[in-house]
Amino acid sequence: MGLGGIEWTVELRFLIALGLGFLVGLERESVKIDRKLVFGGVRTHPIISLFGFGCGLLHKEGVAFALPVGLLAVSLLAGIAYVAKIRVERFGMTSEISALLTFVTGALAMLIDVWVAMALGILNTFLLSEKAMLESYVERLDKTDFLATVKFLLVTLIILPALPNKEYTQFGINPAKIWFIVVIVSTLGFVGYLLEKKFGPKLGLWMSGTLGGIVSSTAMTLSMGRLASQKPEYGKSALQGALLAGSVMYLRVLILIWIVNESIIGILWYRLLILSVVGIVLALRISGQKPVGSESSIRNLKNPFEIRPALGFALLFVILSVIINLIRKSAGNVGLIGLSALVGFLDVDPFILSLIQNPANFETIFVSAILIALMSNTIAKGIYFVLLSRGTCKDTIVSYAILSLMHLPFIFLAV
């Protein structure tokens, strides 16, 4: 059985292999239209994919050497094509590597779950077709960003497998789980960071706020507030960007909860989604200015893949896990609610993730604590923006007051 309960017969797998090969071939054929020398096109790649499918079928029937011999044959053809390209001083290997990947895709379509082959084929096509976009991303990453990202990934690859995956002390501190959560949060933030770098300057403050909210809605609110202070004429656009950043926070938290503890998503998803929609509506009602372009885009977001902030997040996560445990023992649920209100003025992510990290110990009161922390964080962002900005005090107070009060029904429903 495969996707959606469909029974993937050999015939269907054959069609999938053919379709994926044809998809890659179409992309390569479009490059040929520009008179570029590439290996394979709309006929060659489907044939390579079907060749891989046939080798996979033979392997499944007991012909052990079918796959390695098939891969060797395609590699030989790709090598000959590359030598021909070198003679005309073209040194890129993308097309040849893509042909090998097409062979593997066809084989996987026969041997394992079809979704793996589909993902590989679509990703292959995407990477081939979006060369200009990907190169633009790399150009926007300065050397500091690049080195910080490489360091983080190296440390993660070295540290994560070596960390013990068991609980220590009475507080249930699990090093492997903690660092895994750090990696998830940092990765999600890095996606937002890249997107903001790519699209923020082009589409203005509303897009900077939306994408920057994936990285840190509080940092984005502070940045928007400073901009509104320095350039009062951009005040409403900056407030709109700050509200959009705050609205994205609910969706980011929802994604993190789904990754870390999927079992509680049913309790929280509609609450967080409604709060996000309310924030977006409040942002859209602010009018009077045209979207601001690149000249006022926010450029001071920090790369989430830096080691020091990641270690700081891990430390805060551990501290909050211990504090939550101690407060619940000494002050019960009242103490937890008080802590959640206080934490909202700091950083909600480590608090929420420390609450939900253990599915077996999750309690209903945690839903109220999460919502109170988010409400407190929203109030804090409203205060920050009022203190920093000029000329938007009324709109800021009204917008953040409405969004904050919208938390109350969901908090009381959770009790």
What would you say this structure looks like, in words?
The protein is mainly α and 415 residues long. It is built from 16 helices and no strands. The chain has helices spanning 10-33, 44-60, 66-87, 94-111, 114-129, 131-140, 143-162, 175-203, 205-230, 235-260, 265-284, 307-343, 348-356, 365-388, 393-405, 407-414. The longest helix is centred in the last third of the chain and has 37 residues, at 307-343. Residues 290-297 have low confidence and may be disordered.
Fraction of helical residues: over 70%
What is the distance, rounded to the nearest whole angstrom, between the alpha carbons of the first and last residues? 42 Å
Which stretches are poorly predicted, pLDDT < 50 over at least 5 residues? 290-297
Number of domains: 2
- Would you tell me the overall average pLDDT? 81
Q: Would you spell out the secondary-structure blueprint of this structure?
A:
Blueprint: H1 10-33, H2 44-60, H3 66-87, H4 94-111, H5 114-129, H6 131-140, H7 143-162, H8 175-203, H9 205-230, H10 235-260, H11 265-284, H12 307-343, H13 348-356, H14 365-388, H15 393-405, H16 407-414
Helix pairs in contact: 1-2, 1-4, 1-5, 2-3, 2-4, 3-4, 4-5, 7-8, 8-9, 8-10, 8-12, 9-10, 9-14, 10-11, 10-13, 10-14, 12-13, 12-14, 13-14, 14-15, 14-16
